[in-house]
Design a protein that fits this description.
The protein is mainly alpha-helical. It has 8 helices and no strands.
Amino acid sequence: MTFGAFISARRKDLKLNLRETAKHLKIAYGYLSDIEQSRRPAPDGDFVDRISAFLQLDKKEHELLLDLAAKSRNTVSADLPDYIMEKDIVRAALRVAKEVDATDEEWQAFMEMLKNRQR
């Protein structure tokens, strides 16, 4: 799934047309069409937050949209750089994980451990 395909599908699920959506988001109709057709990468800035609110996305869907936007721009999801750069240990952990080629299962176990400590 691409950023544009996700937006298009959700917009259609909500029975919103392209022109109304573009007008609400204060962007050109053609520009939104290009985004939905993956002819342009996702815009940066607050666009993802604005479209997420307009499309009534829940937290999980919003995070997916952030990831899809980042992937379309070949960068890190917009909600992560500040956290990564503020925490030396996070950067160190990511480098270790990269070095040892941490598996999905190892990352899943790590996330579960973090979630369980909150309870």
